[in-house]
Amino acid sequence: MKQEVYSGKTQSGAIAPRTWSRTLVCALILLAVTVSSYAERAVRPEDAVLGRIGFDQNLDAQLPLDAVFTNHRGEQVELGSFFGERPVIIAPIYYNCPMLCGLIINGLLQSMQEVAFNAGADFEVLVVSFDPRETADLARANREVFLEQYGRKGAGPGVHFLVGEEKEIQRLTGTIGFKYEWVPEINDFAHASGVVLATPDGRTSRYFFGIIYPPRDMRLGLVEASEGAIGSPVDRLLLLCYHYDPNTGEYGLLVHRVVNTAAATTAGVLGLFLYVMLRAEKRRKMQSR
After folding, report:
1. What is the domain count for the chain?
2. pTM of the entire structure?
């Protein structure tokens, strides 16, 4: 019997399945190498800022209720004035943030809109700027936009946007485990993302990281916090807000973990694909004997 020579193409000129699979494998390898290479370039190991920012889960920590901040009216208020009756959501951001803080607020808004509980009636919201240079006017402008987008009547008394002096800010951020840093090279802050739930008596109850806070989990967290319960530590997928460098065309900490996750996912898909294809090719060889 004359043995046919495998040409790698079908009669129609299309790539035959075995050649197609090898081509796809090569493409996946190239993609994995490219993504992994970018992940290494996105944040250099010598960038020490990465090791100094984050969000620790200091559960059951007593907040500094005597810390003094300035509200959207320019009035000096103690942190404890927002506690006593209801659980409190605390969002550490800064209003002039060019990147991540807007996403944190949008994520919080979306979660609040999908939860039946109402701000002002069932819980309080504290949005606190960790930039001591920001003013009450800036807090007021951001609060107005927040309330307009939230769209719930009577929410105003339960939504508070604050600014403060560096010492008082650090008392709060240190207690909740929020670590940030001013980076002179980019004239901006590097920081993590997330919100904290606190009990009515001012103890940290649960943490939500990233920029998406599932409404079901938020509802459960508010119920637990309202009862004085302290949640368990949660898995963290931190987004770290840093900067985009137009000179190099590279992102900094904001997408560092996203890029690394993509690289790991690509490698996993590649490994699974190679396994399936090798098994299939082995079966074909056995059937052809």
Report:
1. 2
2. 0.69
